[in-house]
Amino acid sequence: MDLLRRPLHTFLTRATSSVPVAADEEYKITGIYSFGKGLIKRGVIQGSETAYKFLSPISTGQLVMSKLNAWEGALAVVPHEFNGTFVSPEYPVFDIDPEVAEPSYVKHLICWQPFWEMLTPRGSMVRRKRTTPETLLGTVAPLPDIDEQRRIASRLDATLSRADGVQALREKMATLRENLGASFITSAIESATESVRMGDVVVFERTPIEIDPDSEYRNIGIRSFGKGFIRHPPVTGSNLSKLSYFTFSENALALSNLMAWEGGISVTRSEDTGYIASNRFFFYLPADDRVNTSYMRHFLLSRQGQSLIASACSAGAERNRTLGRKRFEDLVFRLPPRPVQDRVARTLDALTERLDAAHSEPALDALRPSILNAAFTGQL
């Protein structure tokens, strides 16, 4: 059974409740995860700490969208715990008409990947495209009558709750791994006998490549939160962005200059060297045998390392915090003896690999998209 499809402006209206920022006032700031993962609390700031002239308060039941990342699922219906927090102008806010749309139905709809694909056309330079409020409001999506929406939302809530329980267990294990890693890194730093400049122990190295419009290339990216590389499928050179591209070596410390502050850091392996990367990514090799790049990855993903990274980023708001190469290379930090680095890297690498293997459930990962697809194609 095909569901009735209607444009979102039939139940969404743009909220216009932005407020001027006062330098001496405090604001609880909210951001949005990509891939339908909801809102994130970004802490409290003083008005004097942001360049924005206006911020938007959000209320329970409203819909919030990231202009920059809506195409990859950065949308959310506001839950109660985020009521009264603020978002920047990069996050348009919309009111949902409860007479036309059930908020719990909309909450599931915006987690459906085919819905994200409706928001921003795929193609070259996709990460530079923005989804406008007008694009969202004009998007045509499955929207049956209100009773059917409630039935579907209720079925989805029940069906997905067990998957959410397993996901919660995964997150608990990830927290345990993070805490254990933090303990190892802190102990390693305490053993350090010297402070070094980053640019003296690692060397910037990447090789420019001339892009042929008719040749195929495999492009690489880096996930946030230390989750490794994104290996994009092959595309022709004509479909790459107009950025410069490079090849890189195995065992290189890799950082996204846009997302290093959010854990966009990894280490290249042999299987990665067939890929290319844009100038948005920095690659560093050890200057000598004082540095283990795997240890450096774990260190830079730690609380201490992320604090260092933040100090080397531009003072932009939200996702506009760019890591500067010179600022990064000028960072000074305490470097443990090489045997300590090797031991920490070996232990944390093995722990990560074992936990990932133990808690990797491809069928479970595919379950949620499959259920959502069934729901919004009239099969639930």
TrEMBL record:
Do you know which InterPro entries this protein is assigned to? Restrct_endonuc_typeI_TRD_sf, Type-I_RE_S_subunit
List the PANTHER family hit by this protein, alphabetically. Answer: TYPE I RESTRICTION ENZYME ECOKI SPECIFICITY SUBUNIT, TYPE-1 RESTRICTION ENZYME ECOKI SPECIFICITY PROTEIN
Query: Looking at the keywords, is DNA-binding present?
Result: yes
> Per its record, how is this protein called by name?
Type I restriction modification DNA specificity domain-containing protein
Q: What keywords would UniProt list here?
A: DNA-binding, Restriction system
Among its keywords, does the record have tRNA-binding? no
Its source organism is Streptomyces tremellae
